[in-house]
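Reading a protein record of the kind used here takes only a little practice. The integers have meaning only within a learned vocabulary of local backbone shapes. With that in mind, consider the following protein and its fold in token form:
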Amino acid sequence: MKLGLILFTAFTFATTSFASSAIEISSLDGSPVKTDAELTGKVVIVDFWASWCGPCRKSFPFFNQLQQKHRADGLVVLAVNEDEERADAEAFLKQYPANFAVLFDRQGQLASQYQIPGMPTTVVIDRQGKIRYSHSGFFESKTAAFEQEIQQLLQEDVKP
């Protein structure tokens, strides 16, 4: 199911792990979207971005490619927008479409909880819900190493 642009309605994330059951989000039409089944046992990339972020223009095509290449293996990409105005995010997405879920954190609560140092910042969460990697900035020269991290996590089993 393509979630498109969806809004956060509650922000109850832990800073050391990612509890999918703590997420409450709604679609643009206001209907609730459940993410438990979609995220449980998955490798999750959470990318914090803003429309004014230059490197974000380069990261979106990379995350589109990763999502397409590794979705069947259990990868989920979530992009969390930090613009104050949703219209700014929507304008960005018209130029740089996302083939993954885009979430809106207008008040920056999620970014505060994750202690995001700047845009973009990418947090990689393993199948057990633990943060395994965090990257500040986006550098095309580091995409191969980033993809290797993802492939390694995708190969790990879910531990009960």
Q: What stands out?
A: Strands lie at 5-10, 24-26, 32-33, 43-49, 75-81, 101-104, 121-125, 131-136. The chain has one domain: 5-155. The first helix runs from residue 36 to 39.
